[in-house]
Write a structure and sequence with these properties.
Elements: E1 11-15, H1 27-35, E2 38-41, H2 44-53, E3 60-62, H3 68-80, E4 84-88, H4 101-109, E5 113-117, H5 122-128, E6 137-141, H6 147-157, E7 163-168, H7 170-184, E8 189-194, E9 202-207, H8 208-217, E10 224-228, H9 247-256, H10 261-272, H11 276-284
Parallel strand pairs: 1-4, 1-5, 2-3, 2-4, 6-7
Antiparallel strand pairs: 7-10, 8-9, 8-10
Helix pairs in contact: 3-4, 7-8, 9-10, 10-11
The chain binds S-adenosylmethionine (SAM).
S-adenosylmethionine binds at residues 19-20, 89, 91-93, 96-98, 121-123, 167-169, 193-198, 223-225.
Length: 286
């Protein structure tokens, strides 16, 4: 029995697993996963590959969003009987946009010791390389997919001064950048961190408007973290949607100032940090 395994009743570890690069598995996680009585994994087929890579043969059971209400209490019973359970997700830290938090709560309520096995996490890995403020930040994970909840959240965060962190799937990236652009305006610095720790890792650091325009032209592929600079409390000009001219208003203003329509559209796209296609579309819609 390991020195970590001396407390009775048993204990619950929440272990990080790599977010792409297998070398990010820690020595300690490998040892404790090998010594534990049971591993509760989000997807047992996915985790079996990781575990066999490290020659770990501990019994596996599935624990995920859709079985947590039945499976959680069962796992707690195992721990109360003195067993050590390690909870892992498909990637990164369990409990961060992944199953794990509910099991931790159940275990704590049952008086079981809960302990972390730290390691890879996409949000913080992206943040530390973003070049944006790391002293204060809020992690939002995946935005609500659509509708009122999404709108309300975006309204609520528009004036938050700390750095904002989001997760997004590639097929929703453009939509999410578009909504962030509408809610926060085009001028803030923003970063997409793609395929972290993998062969095609890439950081794209631009203004929010430029980022949205970039992905209008380049199809997003792979996994993404989006980081956005917080609201600048000293710079009311930063605006947000209320003070900002719409594309049509800006084109009209530039025309009044003497520009031809084409030049005004090009300049409006540049100033708003959106594509010329979007300006054109906005003019059609007025
Ligand atoms: N538990 C994980 C963690 O600690 O980072 C997050 C799991 S969440 C279901 C998956 C999301 O995390 C992806 O949609 C993406 O936004 C982000 N993500 C995971 N791996 C990533 C990677 N290698 N590069 C960029 N983003 C990643």
């Amino acid at each position: 029995m390991s020195e970590e395994n001396t407390t009775k009743p048993g204990l619950l570890y929440l272990s990080a697993t790599p977010i792409g690069n297998l070398e990010d598995m820690t020595y300690r996680s490998v040892r404790i996963l090998g010594e534990a009585d049971l591993i509760a994994a989000e997807d047992t087929r996915h985790s079996r590959k990781l575990l066999s890579h490290f020659d770990i043969h501990t019994p596996l059971t599935s624990y995920h969003e859709h079985n947590k209400l039945d499976k959680g209490p069962e796992l707690v019973e195992h721990m109360l009987a003195g067993r050590t359970v390690v909870c892992i997700s498909d990637a990164g830290l369990p409990g961060i946009s992944d199953p794990g938090a509910h099991l931790a709560m159940l275990a704590i309520e049952a008086g079981i010791q809960v302990s972390p096995l730290p390691g890879a996490n996409a949000a913080l890995s992206a943040l530390i390389c973003s070049g944006l403020d790391t002293t204060a930040f809020t992690f939002y994970g995946f935005l609500p997919r659509t509708g009122k909840k999404r709108r309300e959240l975006l309204e609520r965060i528009a004036r938050r001064p700390e750095t904002l962190i989001f997760y997004e799937a590639p097929h929703h990236l453009k939509g999410t950048l578009g909504d962030l652009l509408k809610a926060l305006g085009p001028h803030r610095r923003a970063v997409t961190a793609r395929e972290l720790t993998k062969a095609f890792e890439e950081f794209n650091r631009r203004s929010l408007g430029e980022l949205a325009a970039y992905y209008d032209e380049h199809e997003p592929r792979g996994e993404f973290v989006i980081i956005v600079e917080g609201f600048d409390l000293n710079n009311e000009v930063e605006a947000g949607p209320k003070q900002q001219l719409t594309p049509a208003e800006l084109v009209a203003k530039l025309e009044r100032e003497g520009m031809g329509r084409k030049e005004a559209m090009r300049e409006a796209a540049k100033q708003l940090g959106i594509s010329r296609r979007d300006v054109y579309q906005a003019l059609l819609n007025t």
